Amino acid sequence: MTNSSTKNKVLWAIVTVLVLLYALFPVASILATSFKAPSDLTSGTFLPTSGQATTSNYEQILVGNAQGLFLSALRNSIGISLIATFIAVVLATLCAYAIARLDFPGKGLVLTTALAVSIFPVISIVTPLFNLWRTIGLYDTWLGLIIPYLSLTLPISIWTLAAFFRQIPWELEQAAQVDGATSWQAFRKAIVPLAAPGVFTTAIIAFFIAWNDFVYGISLTSTETARPVPAALAFFTGASQFEAPTGAISAAAIIVTIPVVLLVLLFQRQIVSGLTSGAVKG
Amino acid sequence: MTSAVPAPPANPTSSPDSTPSVETRSTPGKKAPKQYSERARAERRLGWLLAGPAFVVMLLVTLYPILQATYESLFQFRLTAPDERQFVGLGNYGVILTDSVWWRDLGTTLLITVITVAVELVLGFALALVMNKALKSVRGVLRTAILVPYGIITVVSAFAWFYAFDINSGYVNSWFDWLPGIDENLNWFAQTGTALFVIMASEIWKTTPFISLLLLAGLAQVPDELSEAAKVDGATWWEQMRKVIIPNMKAAIMVAVLFRALDAFRIFDNVFIMTNGAYGTEVLSLLAYRQSISRLEIGLGSAVSVLLFLCVLIISFVAIKLFKVDLAGTQGGKG
Asked: What beta strand segments (E) does chain B contain?
């Protein structure tokens, strides 16, 4: 028994290491690249040559000559993604509440629409928007990205939240009212604490999706006023014309990965349950 | 639909000319259904009041653009020469569908879709099994690790893989130079096959976690008693998989495959970053982008967009009708 459980533990240790390698190797790879000096880039090794590791790439994008480019892109990405997430979650919360709690015709239509929108090819939306935004002055503005981002964040928010809300024991609300609470009190004290985790998880998932966008970012912006990080990375050029931007791009890539890793570390359980909700109880 | 406008009074009791005697006599009996229907109506109104904004926004950001694209696809129209806009009917579609570029790009897109989805299904299933069976102590670590590729920006993933394989900054050539065909002079991004290999590797790495989470959800639905019973009956691991587990999670597998296939069909970021479509790696999304955003050929670009949209519709339709994929059922309908 002890023998087989030790064997079991060793086996699981190996499996865990393999999964960790799979999941983290590309991140480690770009992390290593971000510390390479320009002269060290062609060394053909994974790690920077010892003694030559440098933080100059980070300096370049945070305080150096690429600062304007990167920091404005970072500000755009954070601002636009947060606003798009917020709007999507508010609209989706109302919508999912109605779907989970109320009986009205067209419920299925709303859910089917959300599904259809989520499989919609982004590039098919971009061409007409590109033209329209230029005409009405939304091209290269925050609002010009926030609106199309809703096509990415809203459908998944509705599905995730509807699944969450269906699991809430709504009888608690009536029970609280029977106990003398007003309907607002009942909602606030009994329902909000149960619904909040679902709303929060949905917000994380929606934020990931907005944060990840590239097609809208490169098509609907042209300058630092609204260009988000993924698009900015694609148009990054080196410190000089003769220098590849490899190091700077890697450093920027690591910086925009930090929020993702933090959210994942803190909320892995919620994110997993959010992504699988509806299929798995709890 | 039935939203803001209250329905006309359909209840006969509310008509003024009904005799008072009848009304008083049957008040309790008739009032109840009337109240009920009013409450139901109020509920409908509230339902659409709450769900309406999200519904309208979704239509505005997708239905409107695709209609606009359909309209614009009927014109020969270049943004740099707005005065030369000319109605050409289905001409743009004719131009595209008779051009070998469209068919080559469609082939590349389908190839990427089929290979990535097949690999991801196997890899994702393995990961799902691992997460499902994992000891409590490592479960959290595994989930956290898996979610990193899920949350990472696709463009970041593209750069990570690109720099690893790149002939100048990469280390893959020097690591694997003992393999036939790989040496320090191999430029991965200068041939179709090798470039597609790296593009697909990045795509697979980034999106397998999503498919594995959907499959994990499916695995959790397989009743434990079934696999236990099979085990007692002496079934091997493979038999358990084939006869018990997989048949019982068919719905989840179908949904995962369809979702990923549609997503892979729209692939753009990885290709744009690594090759920008050079050396025969162009995909349909990139073709649409190149026409409308780079060349400002709005008419042609719109036509490509519409065709791409039709392809997605056809794939979904075939999957739903032919393979009976019940998207609504598995993705939250039963929650």
From this structure: 75-78, 81-87
Q: How far apart are CA A258 and CA A253, in angstroms?
A: 9
Average pLDDT, chain B: 82
Instruction: Express each pLDDT in B1-50 by its tens digit.
Output: 333 333 333 333 333 443 344 344 444 444 445 556 787 888 888 888 88
β-partners of residue B76 are B86
B217/A279 touch (CB, cutoff 8 Å), yes or no: yes
Concatenating the DSSP letter of every residue in A139-193 gives TTSHHHHHHHHHHHHHHHHHHHHHHHHHTS-THHHHHHHHTT--HHHHIIIIIHH
The closest of B108, B29, B92 to B279, measured between CA atoms, is B108
**Number of Cβ atoms within 10 Å of the Cβ of A27:** 20
On chain B, the residues whose CB falls within 8 A of the CB of A117 are: 58, 61-62
Q: Which residues pair with B75 in a beta bridge?
A: B87
Domains and CATH numbers, chain A: 59-276 (1.10.3720.10)
A 10 A CB-CB count for B276 gives 16
Residue B270, min C-alpha distance to chain A (Å): 10
Cα–Cα distance list, A77 to A27, A230, A264, B57, B185 (Å): 20, 8, 19, 22, 38
* Fold category of B101-333 in CATH: MetI-like fold (1.10.3720)
Tokens 């019940």 sit on residue: B326
Residues of B in contact with A208 (CB under 8 A): 150-151
Q: Phi and psi at residue B53, in whole multiples of 5°?
A: -55, -45
- Pairing, β B81-87 against β B75-78: antiparallel
Give the mean pLDDT of B78-88.
Answer: 81
Q: Using the beta-carbon criterion (under 8 Å), do A211 and B273 form an inter-chain contact?
A: no
Residues B286-301 have pLDDT tens digits of: 999 998 888 888 889 9
Separation CA B7–CA B41 (nearest Å): 8
CB contact A80 to B (< 8 Å): no
Instruction: Establish how many alpha carbons lie within 13 A of residue B144's alpha carbon, considering only the half-sphere containing its beta carbon.
Output: 14
- Segment A48-67 shows an average pLDDT of 82
Q: Is A67 near chain B, with CB under 8 Å?
A: no
A211 lies within 8 A of chain B by CB: yes
For residue range A148-201, what is the model confidence (pLDDT) as tens digits?
Answer: 999 999 998 998 888 888 888 888 878 888 888 887 787 788 888 888 888 998
Average pLDDT over chain A reads 86
Q: Contact at 8 Å (CB) between B335 and A166? A: yes
pTM: 0.86
Sorted by where each begins, the domain ranges of chain B are 12-72, 101-333
Q: What is the rounded end-to-end Cα distance, in angstroms, of chain B?
A: 26
How far is residue A98 from each of residues A84, A249, B37, B48, B87, measured CA to CA in Å? 21, 45, 18, 8, 45
Tell me the residue length of chain B: 335
The string of pLDDT tens digits covering residues B244-281 is 888 888 888 888 888 889 889 999 999 999 998 888 89
Minimal Cα–Cα distance from A180 to chain B, Å? 23
Residue-level pLDDT at B11: 39
The residues, ordered by sequence, that sit 6+ positions from B86 with a Cβ below 8 Å of its Cβ are B75, B76, B77
Nearest to B206 by CA among B283, B162, B154: B154
The pair of three-digit structure tokens given for residue B4, joined into one six-digit string: 């803001």
pLDDT band at B327 (very low <50, low <70, confident <90, very high): low
* Interface pTM, i.e. ipTM: 0.89
Q: Which amino acid is at B219?
A: L
Residues B265, B319: Cα–Cα separation, whole Å: 14
